[in-house]
Amino acid sequence: MLGMCRGRRKFLAASLALFFIPALTWLYLSVGSFQVKPLPLSPLEAQSSTTLGGAVDRHALELRVRAVEEENRALRRELSRPPRSPSARLQNAGHHGNQSRTHSEEGTGENEGQKAGTAGNNSDCVQQPVVDKCETIHVAIVCAGYNASRDVVTLVKSVLFHRRNPLHFHFITDSIAQQILSSLFHTWMVPAVSVDFYDADELKSEVSWIPNKHYSGIYGLMKLVLTKTLPSDLQRVIVLDTDITFATDIAELWAVFHKFKGQQVLGLVENQSDWYLGNLWKNHRPWPALGRGFNTGVILLLLDRLRKLRWEQMWRLTAERELMSMLSTSLADQDIFNAVIKQNPFLVHQLPCFWNVQLSDHTRSEKCYKDVSDLKVIHWNSPKKLRVKNKHVEFFRNLYLTFLEYDGNLLRRELFGCPSETDHNSENLQKTLSELDEDDPCYEFRRERFTVHRTHLYFLHYEHEPSPDNTDVTLVAQLSMDRLQMLEAICKHWEGPISLALYLSDAEAQQFLRYAQGSEVLMSRGNVGYHIVYKEGQFYPVNLLRNVAMRHVNTPYMFLSDIDFLPMYGLYEYLRKSVVQLDMANAKKALVVPAFETLRYRLSYPKSKAELLSQLDMGTLFTFRYHVWTKGHAPTNFAKWRTATTPYRVQWESDFEPYVMVRRDSPEYDRRFVGFGWNKVAHIMELDAQEYEFVVLPNAYMIHMPHAPSFDITKFRSNKQYRVCLKTLKEEFQQNMSRRYGFAALKYMTAENNS
């Protein structure tokens, strides 16, 4: 309010000056024309005085008129400008004032627009330096583990949503996060985005000597070594925590580097809690800091200057000295950064607090904004994350959820006018797609084969070490949201490792996460790998999903199943014994698990082969698809299986599609088959062409549970063109088989013609 009053008084004074100065000038000139002549002392003096005085007076008047006109023009220019905010005045005062003032004066976040009230945070009143249109913005993020990899995606989405510049992400990761994020960015294929990874395990020795109580562990200290880790020719970088959400273009933050003065090398926002004031509880003893200290969730680093200042030596000496009395850090790297700044306050350039609105409990974050337009960066720096207490938390949570569930495929936007590095994968993809005939009735089927689906591996924590006897088996399956209810039942039936590919949208992925985290059965299992393949296109990419699940099996063998089948109790151990019994390690064999089905949603699952045969005779169970697709499983020879006590070999026949256990190095599924039809048949044909031997297990079985028909089978049944295209793709596959396997593949053509 005080700033507004001052602004009004200034405007009024300027207006009055603009009105009165011309009037006074006119009056002065008018009066000047009526000269009062002094009495001459002598005739000669009077004559010379009249001549010279008139010339001098006219010249002086002309100079004065020009000066007044210049003042008028200056006033008009001043009044034509938008009124400067109090923040700008304070900012200039801060730059030209005494930099040695105490932090208690500037540490409240009241510089750069905060002493005059929250309205001073409005960036519209402050002219930001312009970032070149095609200038690359560098961002460094430390990320380790499964959960952090999931969190960082939301941060990246918020940055990509607002950005207008090329981006280069520098990820300091453990092996888990690198596998997840490298696959994600490779399949995301966002234009003008580069990604580099740095092995955090190689950096552990640099910081492992520092005891740390913070939940981030050793990775919470790695921002200290970025000057040593990042490329030596990289001059500046924005460093972000994974729990950050951007509400503006990151280029605005990048532009702040131009405001650094003197020896300033760190851009930080003041800590918005009372932690470093040491008054949170009795005997609370934080690390030393200037006033309230600074939060390191958002850091601007001038790397080249830091290296010249010997940053490595600076922070190490400070940490060693403080640890003698503090014994450990409580807030990881933040404690050490603040201790260094306490000793060297000239290093820091304080950022306005809207660049790091900290949503932990009991913070002063509400002083950082008055309106939505004031928000720049939101920091969920409480262990409670979205459950933090803040009177505006619903607004912040909704903003976060917007990016959490936002379709990442929509962020594949070109930056027009900016040359980007050649992406050979993207170029090859575009070339392949351009060769397809868009007038082909089956164009969409053919195009789907080459679609690159964004993939997030290990969406939840995964931990499984294969057994040392090399007999371990992983169940492989794929599913969409409508089969989610099968997961708990499968986990109860199969105690071994599972690799699942889930076809979901971004919003559905979050629904799945909530479902899994609310399930005691799923949360008790660490050996289930969930791999999210994000939706794109009009077909269900069933074989791509199977391939994704297969590629991330870490056991020697895999059981290729479907999500709507429940394996018999004990099948995991039975298959492991069969590996040894049938010498799977030294032979190309596919072990067939006979498939049955029930039409009952509630089934008393048979606990033995004898019980299954009894239900088969009673009509509770049936051999799988006997009434609609007999050929699919007829070669299993169920009549023989009823009495078999030892494994027996069967021959491949046309349309055979059993569920099998094979070695991990077996061929993948053919991606041209999408939706319904021929997706498993083609794979079994491939196994036969590679001379796999099909062996039926006498005491193994699986049962298909009833469910509503899938969307794809409905399209197959109702759409004639769908069936025509499927037949075309099948014929092309058989021709490819003939070219790849020669004479041996002729039987597939013959068998098809005879069927």
UniProtKB/TrEMBL annotation:
- Functional pathway: Protein modification; protein glycosylation
Main location per the UniProt record: Golgi
Gene Ontology annotations of biological process type: protein O-linked glycosylation via mannose
Answer whether the UniProt record assigns the keyword Membrane to this protein.
yes
- Its transmembrane ranges are none
One GO MF term, please?
glucuronosyltransferase activity
The way this protein sits in the membrane is described as: Single-pass type II membrane protein
Name a GO CC annotation attached to this entry: Golgi membrane
Which Pfam families does this chain map to?
Glyco_transf_49, Glyco_transf_8
Where is the protein localized?
Golgi apparatus membrane
**Region of interest: Disordered:** 74-122
Q: Which reaction does it catalyse?
A: 3-O-[beta-D-GlcA-(1->3)-beta-D-Xyl-(1->4)-Rib-ol-P-Rib-ol-P-3-beta-D-GalNAc-(1->3)-beta-D-GlcNAc-(1->4)-(O-6-P-alpha-D-Man)]-Thr-[protein] + UDP-alpha-D-xylose = 3-O-[alpha-D-Xyl-(1->3)-beta-D-GlcA-(1->4)-beta-D-Xyl-(1->4)-Rib-ol-P-Rib-ol-P-3-beta-D-GalNAc-(1->3)-beta-D-GlcNAc-(1->4)-(O-6-P-alpha-D-Man)]-Thr-[protein] + UDP + H(+); 3-O-{beta-D-GlcA-(1->[3)-alpha-D-Xyl-(1->3)-beta-D-GlcA-(1->](n)-4)-beta-D-Xyl-(1->4)-Rib-ol-P-Rib-ol-P-3-beta-D-GalNAc-(1->3)-beta-D-GlcNAc-(1->4)-O-6-P-alpha-D-Man}-L-Thr-[protein] + UDP-alpha-D-xylose = 3-O-{(1->[3)-alpha-D-Xyl-(1->3)-beta-D-GlcA-(1->](n+1)-4)-beta-D-Xyl-(1->4)-Rib-ol-P-Rib-ol-P-3-beta-D-GalNAc-(1->3)-beta-D-GlcNAc-(1->4)-O-6-P-alpha-D-Man}-L-Thr-[protein] + UDP + H(+); 3-O-{(1->[3)-alpha-D-Xyl-(1->3)-beta-D-GlcA-(1->](n)-4)-beta-D-Xyl-(1->4)-Rib-ol-P-Rib-ol-P-3-beta-D-GalNAc-(1->3)-beta-D-GlcNAc-(1->4)-O-6-P-alpha-D-Man}-L-Thr-[protein] + UDP-alpha-D-glucuronate = 3-O-{beta-D-GlcA-(1->[3)-alpha-D-Xyl-(1->3)-beta-D-GlcA-(1->](n)-4)-beta-D-Xyl-(1->4)-Rib-ol-P-Rib-ol-P-3-beta-D-GalNAc-(1->3)-beta-D-GlcNAc-(1->4)-O-6-P-alpha-D-Man}-L-Thr-[protein] + UDP + H(+)
Could you tell me which PANTHER family the record lists for this protein?
Answer: GLYCOSYLTRANSFERASE-RELATED, XYLOSYL- AND GLUCURONYLTRANSFERASE LARGE1
Q: Write out the similarity annotation.
A: In the C-terminal section; belongs to the glycosyltransferase 49 family.
Could you tell me what this protein is called? LARGE xylosyl- and glucuronyltransferase 1
Q: Which organism is it from?
A: Champsocephalus esox (pike icefish)
